[in-house]
C-alpha cells in the first residue's frame, strides 16, 4: 500500500498536465495565452498544490503576458479540473516559466560557436 501512495503525486501530475494542456489549447480564449506549452507539472504529496511549468514562444514581454493570462484563467482552470477529474482536493495552481528550453538553446549556441570558431590559441 505504501508503494501506491508514493506514486500518486506523479500520476496526479500526469493527469493534471494532460487535462490542463487540453483546456488551455481548446477552452482558454485569452489572447495572451497563445503559444504556451506545458512542459512539466509537479504536485505536492497531499495533492493540494500543483506547480505548472510552461514554455512560451516569443520575447520576454510575451512570456510575462502569457503568465498573466494563465494566472487570470487560474480559477477557470481549477474549476475545469474539478469537473473532469474525480478528486477530493483540487490542487491550487502556480504557473512558472520553464527556462530549461532557453538554457538548452543557449548551450547549443555556445557549442555551435566553439565548433565554428575553433579553440582560441
General description of the model:
The protein contains four helices and three strands; from the N terminus they run αββααβα. The relative contact order is 0.16. It is of the alpha+beta class and 121 residues long. The chain has a single domain (2-117), classed as 2-Layer Sandwich (GMP Synthetase, Chain A, domain 3). The protein has a three-stranded mixed β-sheet with strand order 1-2-3.
Q: What order do the helices and strands come in, and which of them pair?
A:
Blueprint: H1 2-26, E1 36-43, E2 49-56, H2 60-72, H3 74-84, E3 92-97, H4 100-117
Parallel strand pairs: 2-3
Antiparallel strand pairs: 1-2
Helix pairs in contact: 1-3
How would you briefly describe this protein structure?
This protein is α+β, with helices and mostly antiparallel strands. Helices cover 55% and strands 18% of the residues.
Task: For the structure shown, list the relevant keywords.
121 residues; alpha+beta; GMP Synthetase, Chain A, domain 3; 3-stranded mixed β-sheet; 4 helices; 3 strands; globular
Q: Per the principal axes of the C-alpha atoms, what is the gross shape? A: globular
Radius of gyration: 18 Å
Distance between the termini: 61 Å
Q: Let me know the CATH homologous superfamily.
A: K homology (KH) domain
Could you name the CATH topology?
A: GMP Synthetase, Chain A, domain 3
